[in-house]
Amino acid sequence: MSGTGIMGHPRIYPTGTTYYNADEAYAGYTVYPCAKGALLIDMRGNEVQLWAGLFGYPNKILPGGYVLGSPGVRDPKRSHLEQLALIQVDWNGRVVWKFDKNEFIEDPGGRPGYIARQHHDYQREGSPVGYYSPGSAPRTDGGSTLLLVHVDSRNPRISDKPLLDDRFIEVDWEGRVIWDWIASEHFDELGFDECARNVLFRSPAVVNTGQGDWLHMNSLSTLGPNKWYDSGDERFHPDNIIWDARNANILAITSKKTGRIVWRIGPNFRENASVERLGWIVGQHHFHMIPRGLPGEGNLLVFDNGSLGGYGLRNGTSTDVKTSTHRDHTRVIEFDPISLEVVWEYTSRNAGYYDGFRFYSPYISSAQRLPNGNTLITEGSDGRIFEVTRSHKTVWEYINPYYTRHLAGVERGVNNMVYRAYRVPYEWIPQLDVPREAPIEPPDIRLYRVPGSISGASPENEVAVSGVRADAPSPARHPAASLLVPEQRAGVRDFE
User: Fold this and answer.
1) What is the average per-residue pLDDT within 398-403?
2) Cβ partners under 8 Å of residue 188, min gap 6
């Protein structure tokens, strides 16, 4: 049964910070892209800085109060999710670095010029994953930048249709391309079987430009220093690039030196017993290695969205003839890259929900490991950012209050989606005083009402029913309710 067909969301609900356990959360600032621009908030949801109109695919904070983002998007009638440039902006809004010299574009009706064609991810030298880890920090006044960009290509071995291909480029501080890698040149290393190749050839996920977005990569980062390489495994060289392709259900590592794919799982999650135990990863985002200095360092972390993905034979869940896999719930998983054993995961069930799709974002989203061992999760399609402990307890939650009809220039229905959020330590923003920490307690949602609504039942309106016990089983006391944590049975979710 499809959860998207039977579940819905309320129209009215609180936004901003809805809960803050100051004793157990990792305190810092959080940056995320919203309808207003790049927004920086504190733990209580106070908006401490807005870089107006600076879109983020994603936005990232650098030490010293700098932010990275995009000043605009290419005409969506002529492109698919492509940024004009990647820029670094200081606290006062001054552009201190810009890259757009990837490709000269002459769109009909547009102004000819160079653009970056960047999409989904990038990394600045000094930080392998773009978020805080002890002992490493992204450079702010030099160094190289790794970007994920589009390139137009044709490859009759992949499809008879034009392709919107994925390319990695590394650029120096002056904007010169010093290294690149193109996905279609490594088609034979991607693990597609004959059936998957057949489906891909005919239906390579054609988008509005008429091109096949056949892989739709959405993350790339470097591995950085790690214990696997220290023990002699060359596949995990610190310079190697880790990435994922959501349309193909592929997660992989590319050798920076040779260009070859040296580690891969997917697209077939029945390939061997270890992969099968890990389970199907579908439509995933933000696949990366937890960097050195953080709890779980060396393990792999991914937001396993669910939804639709993959090519080839349907695995029994997909109702779409063009995709092989369908799952209506999300999981965040941390796993060992050698054994593929799951070390930790967050799902609806282990958070205490009865329905699996209570935690479900079919697109975008991310997960960041924090210094105290907690994980910051962006449940992107709902505009929800929240922090959980190793025991799956929510200790901070924030709902994006800003709605738009656009994401990267693409017209959509009204939404408050958040592509990806990052938490940074207070010391990365020297322009601000460290805020006073004060907890925010959630209301008792059994009694929580909007103004004018009745606050609840009153004893004088309660009558006994002849022959019926007041404590008889009811939907609210269904045996399945025993699966919920006590606070959820009382009307509060997984906060305590």
Assistant:
1) 96
2) none
